[in-house]
Amino acid sequence: MKIAMIGTGYVGLVSGVCFSDFGHDVVCVDKDPRKIELLTEGKVPIYEPGLEDLMAKNVAAGRLSFTLDLGAAVAGADAVFIAVGTPTRRGDGHADLTYVMAAAEEIATALTGYAVVVTKSTVPVGTNRAVARSIRKSRPGAEFDVASNPEFLREGAAIDDFMRPDRVVVGTTSERAREVMGEIYRPLFLREFPVLYTDLETAEMIKYAANAFLATKITFINEIAQLCERVGADVKEVARGMGLDGRIGNKFLHAGPGYGGSCFPKDTQALARMGQDNACPMQITETVIKVNDEIKRRMIDKILDLCGGSVNGKVVAVLGVTFKPNTDDMRDAPSLTIVPALIGGGAKVRLVDPQGRAEGEALLPGVHWMDDAYKAAQKADCLVILTEWNEFRGLDLGKLAKKMASPRMADLRNIYSAKDAKKAGFEAYVSIGR
Fold this sequence. Notes:
CATH superfamily of the largest domain: NAD(P)-binding Rossmann-like Domain
Oligomer: single chain
Mean pLDDT: 96
Largest sheet: 6 strands, parallel
Number of strands: 14
Structural class: alpha/beta
Shape: elongated
């Protein structure tokens, strides 16, 4: 099959590379000349484990290419995927569909024969029908169908998620489009991964419902963690006891400083707004958004309490700024709330992150970036763990404590234990829900 992938952001690039590895001929399109130049040179503009090697393999095989020319990519394509950004629209919480609708208009002018126009971007219910109307208005005689194919990729594990998915969701009202999508995903079908066919609206809603539920699960355990601190329970054991229940499961039950990233913040806001617009308030989701914001601010209080009520004039070493490990994504990361608050409180902040500096330098001014946790801890008054990178999971706590002016640790990912920290020489240690 010939596929055009419009957009080479996280979703578009990972999807395009993986489709080419299925054996399809894929052309990835972007308007950013610098991004296309990098990709043509074999360089990946995002950090995702394994992506650069897989991309190089398929470029060498002649199945994958990159271009600025949308018309050339769409001409003769069996399927055209829209994988552009849908950020939260400033001021009202709606998903901004500007890029999606612009892509639809350009696709309309470029179609040369029958193609399935597939929305891969996360879009509110009704968007795919709006895309169809836009194309028909621009090209009344165009032969096409639309399909919704939401992505469920976890940053840091996206290739495995694409190649071994829990499910593939395809929304379409056309049997012809269903056949094309079935052919595109045939390698997964042969390996018996489930492909769920629905109507357009159901496919669009599945994505939002799934992400809102996972955000709710994270926020729930974070609230339980706060109560655990008050009553003397251990949230890690509580989560383990909950997770052993097959109806609940153990995923997304790790207490921390709140969710962030490219999906949960904007998708919960978009779902809440959809509910308001349809006179059906999403009260649980609205509460999740509110509580998650409060959790991030509560982490600041933990650090201040650990430092005697103030960080003014103190050196604080922060380990991890990306919203999760194995990504360079800083979008809505807890660090964007916590680090500025520390600086505003008069702290001298040192940051260490294996991949976060490229984005973080512009987002977190007024800090000192370092490449080693032990160097960052030198003469520091407090150490804060914000992201659970593997590099931070096996630190020599004794070595850290000896380097610090005042060995205090705020372990906001519950990597270590109070017992181990005390044994290593830390005079104070706080975590979450314990």
